[in-house]
Write a structure and sequence with these properties.
binds D-ribose; Ribose 5-phosphate Isomerase B, Chain: A
């Protein structure tokens, strides 16, 4: 099992993905970039599926998904039972999705969340631990 972070985005999110991937690489964190890498139109469910596969087979332990709003790609990701994808627009939600929901995928909307907020959310996502306790039972019920 690796501690690498997988990232995937559609054409609405690839620029933010590149920014976050660079931040992670600069911080010495291994990145698995699953595309897309251009403005050419693609379908966000395909990228959610790629990321779900990467977490399932152990190429990465956590992931980041980005589309225009974050909505479509989070719906697609959460169809996979092993994925707990949280669409976040702020640091508080991001902290709580780790502490309470043990979210393993941070979802961002590049057309609604600015790059500095997105960067701050990613930092919080990676540095916050699951609290366990009463939340264990609830998270177990999701699976
Ligand atoms: C693509 O135009 C856009 O629909 C997609 O990025 C996302 O916002 C869907 O939820």
């Amino acid at each position: 099992m690796t501690d690498a972070i997988a990232l995937a985005a559609d054409h609405g999110g690839y620029e933010l993905k590149a920014l976050l991937a660079k931040d992670l690489t600069d911080a010495g964190i291994a990145v698995v970039d699953l595309g897309t890498n251009s403005a050419d139109s693609v379908d966000y469910p395909d990228y959610a599926d790629r990321l779900a596969a990467a977490l399932k087979d152990g190429r990465a332990t956590r992931g980041v998904l980005i589309c225009g709003t974050g909505v479509g790609i989070s719906i697609a990701a959460n169809r996979h039972r092993h994925i707990r994808a949280a669409l976040c627009h702020d640091e508080t939600t991001t902290r709580l999705c780790r502490q309470h929901n043990d979210a393993n995928v941070l979802v961002l909307g590049a057309r609604v969340t600015g790059p500095e907020v997105a960067r701050a959310c990613l930092k919080v996502f990676l540095s916050t631990k699951f609290e366990g306790g009463r939340h264990e039972r609830r998270v177990a019920k999701l699976a």
